[in-house]
Amino acid sequence: TMASLPETMKAVQIDQTGGVDVLQYRDVAVPSELKEGEVLIKNEYIGINYIDTYFRGGVYSPPSFPYTLGREGAGTIAALGPGTPSDLKLNGRVAYFSVGAYADYVRVSADKVMPLPDTITTKVAAASPLQALTALTLIREAHPVKAGEWILVTAAAGGVGLWLCQLLKAVGARTIATASTAEKRELAKQNGAEVVLEYHEDNRDRFVDKVLEVTGGKGVAAVFDSVGQATFDSSLKVLTRKGTMVSFGNASGPVTNFALGRLADKNLKLLRPSVSSYITSREELLPYANELWNFIEKDGLSVKIHEVYPLKDVKRATEDIESRKTSGKLLLKP
Ligand code: NDP
């Protein structure tokens, strides 16, 4: 079957870290050999994630160069390697987590591939592996959310943020959502947030006071904070006693030099989780994927697509997500 594939394809690579100008849209070889347990996927949509900007910009280090960016997508299986699970079929529709996703074809270990039910569109599927499954692992494992709890979500109109708002609503939590513009806050509300707030970047105490006011002086049971450096302190301040600080992203820069003693006043829990450390095998992936597809079908969860960009327009897409002007999901179309 590999014989029927083209020899070259388009991909987005970097040869060094830096600004958007390091992004190279170029011809590369289509992966020609599949190892035990691998499949070749023809992308229909590729998901853009904020983490792609960390690898391009140097916040995280690519293991080697040239490095093909991208960590997720959805499409069809173009070839099966030896020893792949029987639920993965040639031409079957799938979504996946994998490095090297910004390309026409990508070679992926079956451990990272989810077959798609007919009810899930390929667009929704491409928007799900990183952002939706992150949101789901956060509410199930980082802080197992209970109905009636107040939860704070930062960057609530972003990719992960809108999934969090919807999932929290579906499980009966009460969400306070922050986002930088009135339009984004309105979107968070439409996606299930009960209260929306601006960050008050010039006066974070004002933000803290507002959250305390909303929660009757008690504070929130957990914060899901993806902004990092800029919001870390105010997020700690709005937690209730024995609350949980879940710091899962660095959009404003990473949190460093944290003195553990700061947790003692309120006996707070602090986590810095990664979805790829919650989902490490097929046994961990498939139940989460099925739970997500069920939420989408039964609770009517949906994805707001910000824009579908042609793969060759990757620079513009990257500038857009870094500009804070986007909401929901950005997709690339090969
Ligand atoms: P988003 O769509 O949420 O885009 C990032 C958002 O962060 C912006 O829209 C913006 O929203 C907000 N933001 C706040 N401060 C800044 C800043 N200084 N510069 C840029 N943006 C800023 O991206 P994703 O949904 O892809 O990711 C959200 C976060 O979750 C990221 O930090 C990402 O790294 C993290 N993440 C972590 C995972 C994990 O496993 N730990 C997995 C997936 C994502 P606003 O303007 O409203 O503030």
TrEMBL record:
Sequence ranges assigned to domain Enoyl reductase (ER) in this UniProt record: 18-332
A Pfam family reported for this protein in Swiss-Prot or TrEMBL: ADH_zinc_N
Key words, A-Z: NADP, Oxidoreductase
Keyword Cell membrane: no
GO cellular component: cytosol
One of the record's GO molecular function terms: mRNA 3'-UTR AU-rich region binding
Protein name as it appears in the record: Probable quinone oxidoreductase
Source organism of this protein record: Periconia macrospinosa
